[in-house]
Amino acid sequence: MLVGGEWTEERGKAVPDLREPEGRMLVPSLKVQDLIEEIRGAKTQAQEREVIQKECAHIRASFRDGDPLHRHRQLAKLLYVHMLGYPAHFGQMECLKLIASPRFTDKRVGYLGAMLLLDERQDAHLLITNSIKNDLSQGTQAVQGLALCTLSTMGSAEMCRDLATEVEKLLLQPSPYVRKKAVLTAVHMIRKVPELSTVFLPPCAQLLHERHHGILLGTITLIMELCERSPAALKHFRKVVPQLVQILRTLLTTGYSTEHSISGVSDPFLQVQILRLLRILGRNHEESSETMNDLLAQVATNTDTSRNAGNAVLFETVLTILDIRSAAGLRVLAVNILGRFLLNSDKNIRYVALTSLLRLVQSDHSAVQRHRPTVVECLQEPDTSLSRRALELSLALVNSSNVRAMTQELQGFLQSCPTDLRADCASGILLAAERYAPTKRWHIDTILRVLTTAGAHVRDDAVANLTQLIGGAQELHAYSVRRLYCALAEDISQQPLVQVAAWCIGEYGDLLLEGSCEEIEPLQVEEEEVLALLERVLQSHMSLPATRGYALTALMKLSTRLRGDNNRIRQVVSIYGSCLDVELQQRAVEYDTLFRKYDHMRAAILEKMPLVERGGPQVDEEAKESKEARLLEAAPVPTEPQASKLLDLLDLLDGPSEDAQHPRPLDPSPGGALVHLLDLPCAPPPAAPIPNLKVFEREGLQLSLSFVRPPETPALLLITVTATNTSGGDVTHFICQAAVPKSFQLQLQAPSGDTVPAQGGLPMTQLLRILNPNKAPLRLKLRLTYTHFGQSVQEIFEVNNLPVETWQ
């Protein structure tokens, strides 16, 4: 019996005493396989924790005793425990001891533990730098492979700088096994420390001559990383484009190989990576693009598309053709390939094709337009992600020549589309109709169909847009009011439709009763029917407070347009004078007061609404141009100095004109002497406007800055950020954040919204207030976060070219 470190005999046998000096019983430590079986056999989580706690205690005790023979076994069990999610940090130092051991079995487990238990956040990972350096320079191939794997997995920037030279030497080792792992390690180093590109630039040219596909694949990846992070490397590797073209052509002409062929395609992984590298090298470079045009045409026409491997190569070929400066015929071929992808039975391929065509629709609209029937068929896909992409692409394909046919297809889809797509579909149809409507009547009919089908899903401005459209089409007033009355009589659940119908009945109720519309079938409507319909809207539980307000105002306006007695209208108005809704109650009380005290003014107050000019960037631009033209016409009249001065004074209400910014010399004539009337101090001329600045543009989304410096606060700069979207899809979840140097004070106001409508809709604006007391040069850093075409985008950039007037 072993007591206090000595053996004693008991019944003729030498048996170990399983007690520690303190008297506690020791349970024998389990083997790795036995530990796995016992943990898997635990029926409850508590049993599993109990087994792991006991074994971790044994592992700790073994580490404390410093048993070198079984250290790797104990660490292997600890790594399994770590993989189950339990803490294993106490084994980090044991990994370092095993890595420093000369035995391969110890190094293998030690490097594995380092990859699992160590990372850049812990200082202990720096302690293995010397061990990795020794193994890279003096170890066997297997040990070098372990060291390279560990370095490429958890190597920090400091380790990469220290070991770059050793990895560079291994790139040219005779062993393909070591060279392949060294190339992958170099890729990790470039990603961690981009300035190491000069170290790995020379060996890449030699590695391109490799016949080993694994080494060649890693080399292509390394060159891609170098080109993306170093302009000098990009310029250097454009010289090897012919060599890359030859490598890819060899892959195409090589017959079947059991080692590299997949589904009849010769090493599709290597082909895809070469095509990606060619895309980087040929972007914005005419000579490189010309060199690879013939090869890309060969790949596009000879690749087998019956298997997924061939489709992957073909898709990368399409992306390369579209990204470089390829010939026009080649681009049409690429679009046709995407069109064939739309007919594929694989949903993933169809989704990829729709996404790619959506990105192309701005640059190659006519080529994509040829596949419009196939895109429209994809609207009926049961997969929501596919139908959403098809909807976005269909809306982007709408133009003035196909607006009638496309709108009809989209309206058919709107009736049967899923609920989560109805808002996007309805908004897209309304925007397309507003932009490409051939006639006003067609425009009104289109909006009415959308409101009837999916009125609850339209945008908030749909009601205002339709009322403005109807108000501006005087020849269609009778037609519109009859269409809306019929639609309202059939369904009062669509709130936007009810609001527009109530407004139109209130404005043009007299035309509804006349029955003189020639464009639709004759319809005889009685006054009582109109009043009953509006009362039904007021009493409906589906009506919103805003809808009831429209209906109540319509009843009030009908009191001046109907020939009958107004007692029924007065009773309804008086009833809502005690409504719980404060807004509706106030409106009813005011209308009742109008009946009782100001009945003689009621007809004049309730006249038809005047035509309201439609807002928007295009309308504002036209108004500004016409205003400038009027000013230019009025400015050169020298015979009426007083009139011109009066024009300038009145123009101050709208903003400084060109004449006001550059005042002419005072006329010594008596007319000019009026300026000095009573010798009043004249205000200084307003400062010249600061020019706007466009700071961002990507896939139709543009961001511009406009500047204003209030004269009363020269240190304050007001920047209005305006986001516009000319693409075919809405930009959603748009967030603009800004930062300035510490010497400035920045305040961001709330934006006007988080959605930038597609196809030139209303822009989104946000105000930035910047206080610059020291008048220092202004630098602005912006971060944009948004979702476009279903993809989340984040852009961070600095604006250093702000006009001097913003800070001087």
From TrEMBL:
GO biological process: intracellular protein transport; vesicle-mediated transport
InterPro entries named among the record's database cross-references: Adaptor_Complx_Large_Subunit (IPR050840), AP1_complex_gsu (IPR017107), ARM-like (IPR011989), ARM-type_fold (IPR016024), Clathrin/coatomer_adapt-like_N (IPR002553), Clathrin_a/b/g-adaptin_app_Ig (IPR008152), Clathrin_app_Ig-like_sf (IPR013041), GAE_dom (IPR008153)
Subcellular location: Cytoplasmic vesicle membrane; Endomembrane system; Golgi apparatus
Signal peptide boundaries: none
One Pfam short name: Alpha_adaptinC2
Entry keyword annotation includes Membrane: yes
Protein name per its UniProtKB record: AP-1 complex subunit gamma
Organism, as annotated: Equus asinus (Donkey)
Gene giving rise to this polypeptide: AP1G2
